[in-house]
Every structure is written in C-alpha cells, then in structure tokens.
Amino acid sequence: MAQETIFSKIIRREIPADILYQDDLVTAFRDVNPQAPTHILIIPNRIIPTVNDVTEEDEPALGRLFTVAAKLAADEGIDENGYRLIVNCNRDGGQEVYHLHMHLLGGRRLGPMLVRRD
Ligand code: AMP
Asked: Which residues of the chain have pLDDT under 70?
C-alpha cells in the first residue's frame, strides 16, 4: 500500500482545498502556491507515488487527467491562448509530493520550458 500524502486528505476533503472537479477517478484543485494565474493540480484518486509506479491498471485514471485538464482549461478561458501540462518525477524532476499529479498552468506567456542551469 503506497504511502499517503497531503493529497489523500484533500481527496477525502479532510483539509481545505479549492476543489474544482472530482469524480470516481480523479480530483482537481488549485495549487496553494500558484506559479501562473491558472495553476491547477489534477491527480488520480488512487495513490500512484510517481510515474515510475504507473501500471496498465492506471490507464483510465491517467487518461482522465487529460480530459479534465482540457475541460478545466476551457472553464478557465485559457484553452485558446494555450497552457502547459507538467508531471514531475522524483528528485531530478523536482517532485515534492509523492502522489502523482499533473500541473495545469496558464493565463500568461509561460516562456521557455526550461531555464538552463547546468
Ligand atoms: P511537485 O513539485 O510537482 O511535487 O508539485 C507539488 C505541488 O503541490 C506544488 O506546486 C505545491 O505548491 C502543491 N501543494 C502542496 N501542498 C498543497 C496543498 N495543501 N494544496 C494545494 N497545493 C499544494
């Protein structure tokens, strides 16, 4: 059984979060520390710690992340101008919370995908 993070408490509505969407497979809520005018996290309800832990069984939930991202981008009015979807994995990917999540970022020009720092 994978270890719970703060995101499990958000899914169960045990701690406050600005939840925008929830169904049997995924939950979406605003990031507490937004990096853009729209910054939403979309997560599978089942705990998948990292992309490395994904199995075929997870494909319906992982597909749902994208349909919900598209719906929320339209709701936020950023679909035409565009947005960025990010999934970080482990230390080098900058992952902080070990419950797989997709970042939906938009509402401004996001600039280059990566700032070179090597
Ligand atoms: P990552 O670095 O990809 O693991 O991203 C984790 C994200 O979770 C960060 O953008 C945090 O700001 C966000 N975060 C952490 N705790 C919360 C919370 N309680 N509610 C909403 N977002 C959170």
From this structure: none
Closest-lying ligand 1 atom to the alpha carbon of residue 88: 3
Catalytic member of 39, 99, 101, 103: 101
Q: Domains in the chain, ordered, with CATH?
A: 6-106 (3.30.428.10)
Look at residue 52 in the predicted model and tell me its pLDDT.
Answer: 98
pLDDT of residue 116: 81
Kindly report, residue by residue over 84-109, the tens digit of the pLDDT: 999 999 999 999 999 999 999 999 99
Per the annotation, the verdict on 101 as an active-site residue is: yes
Among residues 85, 1, 90, 77, which one has the least CA distance to residue 43?
A: 85
Q: What is the reported pTM?
A: 0.97
Helices (H), the chain: 6-11, 59-76, 90-93
| CA 94 to ligand 1 center in whole angstroms | 11
